[in-house]
Amino acid sequence: MKVRLYIIFLISIAAVSCGEYEKILKSTDYELKKAKAVEYYNAKQYGKATELFSQVIPRFRASAEVEELFWLNAQSFYNMRQYDVAGSYFKSIAEQYPFGPYAEESSFLGALCDYNLAPRAELDQTSSRSAIEGFNLFLTRFPASPKAEEARKYIQELQDRLVEKSYLNARLYYNMKEYKAAITALTNSLKEYSDSKYREEMMFLKLNSLFLYAENSYAIRQKERYQATLDEYFSFMEEFPKSQYSREVSRIYDVTTKYLKVKSPQELENLE
């Protein structure tokens, strides 16, 4: 019996609360709406708060209070993990009020929202690039910020993710035996991310792609493609003379030089 009465009591409170909220939404008293929006925010009822802020902010746009209202609205969306909406509000605050009390944190949180939206490396990395851009802008504007080191760590993590994405894309072409596309993708990735942790593997994949591309070419195109393979072999060996891929690399060299009829370093220099 007591449990039933307690449930009825809770339902009654919820109904009254809901009715009060609906009345506030329909009210023309914007001072009341503003006060209630802040009250709902402080009570962590962020959904209700954002509904009221959306009505209040246009009315107070020319006032000194609007910056704080924008800030509370952005924080509400952030706390609801609606990072796309929150990020746009934080960025707007940082741009519109560059010298305001919320500029520094808004700049950081705008980038952090993009970071939170960034998916794993296999997927599209547009949000990762936006986050890197945002954190770099934050560091440029606020180099002495207490959050500067944290921003740098996020940038490094996101850059590692872009490197991995680039590697996975190139590796996919290789696995699909699309060797011409793999050569282009690997070349671009190695150029853009020259200090990648995948560098040795990617250089080997490029060498092997060139070799397999030459092997599977029409006879009329094989000489130039084996020559490109040999050039890549020397680049690889110069950088990784004791590579974990030494056995495979040696085989590529043997087959390539046999085709090109190369027997000595002097003959290499005389190749057309």
Summarize the structure.
With 272 residues, the chain is mostly helical. The chain has helices at residues 2-26, 30-42, 46-59, 66-79, 83-96, 103-117, 126-141, 148-175, 179-192, 199-215, 219-239, 246-260, 265-269.
Description:
This protein is mainly α. The chain folds into three domains: 17-76, no CATH class; 81-175, Serine Threonine Protein Phosphatase 5, Tetratricopeptide repeat (Alpha Horseshoe); 178-272, Serine Threonine Protein Phosphatase 5, Tetratricopeptide repeat. The protein has 13 helices and no strands. It has helices at 2-26, 30-42, 46-59, 66-79, 83-96, 103-117, 126-141, 148-175, 179-192, 199-215, 219-239, 246-260, 265-269. α5 (83-96) packs antiparallel against α6 (103-117). The radius of gyration is 30 Å and the shape is elongated. The N and C termini lie far apart (98 Å). Residues 5-17 have low confidence and may be disordered.
